[in-house]
Amino acid sequence: MRLLIPNRAHVPATGLAKWYNLPFMSQEAIYPPSPEFVSKANVQGMEGYRALYDHAAEKPEEFWGELAEKEISWFEKWNHVFEWHPPFAKWFVGGKLNVSYNCIDRHLATPRKNKAAIIWEGEPGDQRVITYQELHRLVCRFANVLKSRGLKAGDRSIVYMPMIPELPIALLACARLGITHSVVFGGFSAEALKARIQDLDAAVVITADGGWRRGKEVKLKGAVDEAVAECPSVKDVIVVKRTGSEIKMQEGRDHWWHVLDEGMSEDCPAVPLDSEHPLYVLYTSGTTGKPKGILHTTAGYLLQTTMTMKWVFDLKEEDTYWCSADIGWVTGHSYIVYGPLSAGATTLMYEGAPDSPNYDRWWRIIAKYRVNIFYTSPTAIRALIRQGEQWPNGHDLTSLRLLGSVGEPINPAAWEWYHRVIGGGRCPIVDTWWQTETGSILIAPMPGAVPLKPGSGTLPMPGIVPEVIDLHGNPVGPGKEGFLILKRPWPSMIRTIWGDPDRYESQYWARVPGAYFTGDAARCDADGYYWVLGRVDDVMNVSGHRLSTMEVESALVRHDAVAEAAVVGKPDEITGQAVCCFVTLKKGDYDHGKLGIELRQWVAHEIGSFARPAEIRFTDALPKTRSGKIMRRLLREIVTSHTVAGDVTTLEDMSVVTNLAAQHDDD
Ligand code: WTA
After folding, report:
1. pLDDT tens, position by position, 224-272
2. Helix (H) or strand (E) holding 260
3. pLDDT value at position 5?
4. What residue owns the CA closest to ligand 1's atom 8?
5. DSSP category for residue 292
């Protein structure tokens, strides 16, 4: 088999972790579930897990078909479960359903009708509890608003909002009508917003004046004005009044949500949509400067997010569930909105920062609402560890029964702290590996079944067949590092990259014929447990947020002073990686101190504040191969170990590297 790993042909088949400066996790401790947890779990013991996994492996169509019938409400049943014309998959072909109906309407005929669907807390301390029935009214009204603006199935909307209830309401209203939504995280800049609106040809932007974070207003409407000025496709901008600050409203184009919403009918039937109708597009960083619009469709996505809610979070009717992500990222889509609501859960949403007004805000919220399941990121855990145990210890966290982690590898020390201090030693931790592209959790423990090993995502979900391979596509065997691939398509998988099926094919399916290339390095140990180590492409993971090195480089070279730029992720104790930029300047006199600050600000302006580089290093030249490619690997070594030990035979000018390495020692 011929395997193509562009730009990486020189990577040794093993030793990947060292090559990419990825962490090596210890495999010492094992935490089996307590008999008490097992006795109440949705999936009990390894036999329970094995039965599901084996069924899915042996008869995938029967497995998913049975679940789809039992777990999803259909307007029309599908003709067949699966169609695979690699790399394009269709699930539940010919079926008709509606995601909004599944997340709301079907619960209204059950005791869930007056159950809290969403519990929301704003950063200033305001709160709202929205029952399923109330959610139905709010979603129908806003769907009627969208209809009244002439929007219909197949149109695209952009949602650029703070973490307020109107955000999930907007998503569910779009889904109700078949309007494909794309949420742009509120931390993205006007430039990034514009690129996404244009790529989608969106007809409407749904936004707010601003939101609250660390006691300050994060303004949003100004960025929308700047972006939409160059987006002729946008006919309407709908604005929620959240902060009440002064904003400009453009006559004819901009409308207040509450004004349009007033007097709207509370009846809006959900539109029956095809199983493969585009539910949403979510942009994520790839290996080039241009973000990829990941497309998720209706039935397969809904089914697999619903099932993983039950399998991984062991969801019970009485649980209060809280995922601390922002809905601007995939975790929020799948595990704040669609998965929990489809499963009939109470999902908690918090608007602001974990340290506002103090480092115990999250623990206060858990104690206040008696949260049972809490899902967050290793970066957040590490940041809170640094503040000390006195913050969580001051609160009653005994309602918690299950903890989750997502977005990046969790180091065993952070795992142990989370387990001991937050979980009181009694809560299993589900370390969930997945990606924007996978739509739902693919590798994670079922907590009443699978013994945990800190730092490992443990075992694959039913229907998921991972493998760790070397450069030539051969399995590396137990305990060895290699590239993580997925050998079978799954219901919630990416369908294509919006407007770019060729890129979809080449990015994910062309490297190992017939298999999905994750872009992650991993090890599978002798027990079959997966240890995902991190990215092997030019994607950084900063605080669990994906960011492409190329995206930051393109932003930098758009600045007048910059000639060339190379960006690498530098290991960071809290955020996992931090953005480190090597920059060469055009001819001229520069104050490096001032320019460094300006360039950091520039990147924040071009991409968003979360992409602001930690470090800008000026250099006379960048290390390149004879063919002119920047050798990022060497730069990675410089920022990690401050020395260069790897193979440098293809380097054009070795002095560049020695200078860069030496420069650090001078600092
Ligand atoms: C990384 C977030 C180790 C991985 C849901 C993946 C993880 C990328 C884990 C996807 C985990 C996510 N252990 N690494 N539990 N979860 N990753 O698209 O590198 O924002 O490829 O999706 O995050 O990031 P994305």
Report:
1. 999 999 999 999 999 999 999 999 999 999 999 999 999 999 999 999 9
2. helix 257-261
3. 43
4. 435
5. E
